[in-house]
Write a structure and sequence with these properties.
2 helices, alpha+beta, 63 residues, elongated
Length: 63
């Protein structure tokens, strides 16, 4: 197995950690329903790019 030649200095370690943070996920707003959803994903209401692409159960049906 590979073994590092020398320790990473605190400065280099800090530089690496500065870029290792998690970015906020990209969120879109659907034009038709106004629902927020992840980019390139279907909204919880079943809309994608303003069109209804999947039938979803209403909240009254699931209870």
């Amino acid at each position: 197995m590979p073994v590092q030649k020398s320790r990473k200095t605190p400065s280099k370690r800090g530089m690496q950690r500065a870029h290792a943070f998690l970015a906020a996920p990209a969120v879109s707003v659907d034009a038709t329903s106004g629902e927020t959803h992840a980019r390139h994903r279907i909204s919880p209401d079943g809309f994608y790019r303003g069109k209804k692409v999947i039938e979803t159960r209403s909240k009254s049906d699931s209870e």
